[in-house]
Amino acid sequence: MRCGLVISLFLVTSELLAGAQTNLFSGSRGASRSVFGYDPTPDFIAFDSQYRHKHAKYADELRELQLELARQSANGRVTPCSRQIFLEARWLAFYSAQWERTERRLRELRELLARAADPPDARQQI
Fold first, then answer.
1. DSSP string, 60-109
2. How many domains does the chain have?
3. Which is nearest to 106 in space by CA: 72, 68, 58, 67?
4. Rounded to whole angstroms, how far apart are CA atoms 91 and 68?
5. At what angle do helices 2-21 and 51-74 cross, to 10 degrees?
6. Domain for residue 33, yes or no?
7. Of 68, 85, 79, which is closest to residue 123 (Cα–Cα)?
8. Is the predicted pLDDT of residue 23 greater than 70, yes or no?
9. What is the DSSP letter of 23?
10. Does the structure show a pLDDT above 60 at 78?
11. In this predicted structure, what is the pLDDT of residue 114?
12. What pTM was computed for the model?
């Protein structure tokens, strides 16, 4: 439970800091990427002209689900599966333009958070 609380606090704190410093849209992410010498945002836009709109939509959904995940973790829920799905959805939303996969993972996270608990064998590798 202590580990879950630490992770919850980390998620909430990182969300608050992200909201205070920058928003989660591709423009601010692009600025942080350019530190490494390459901003892929123009490539994503060339691939999908609706990239900025779709990215903003999924970033907003992800933020809401992240806050719900942190709330449930703070209330004692053990969340190994939820956290894994969250991390996958976050990667898809911020580092790809695979909208169908992004939407599917966000839907799966939303459904899992609506359940009473993560699967009981979630901490064991199958």
1. HHHHHHHHHHHHHHHTT---HHHHHHHHHHHHHHHH---HHHHHHHHHHH
2. 1
3. 58
4. 18
5. 140
6. yes
7. 79
8. no
9. -
10. yes
11. 96
12. 0.69
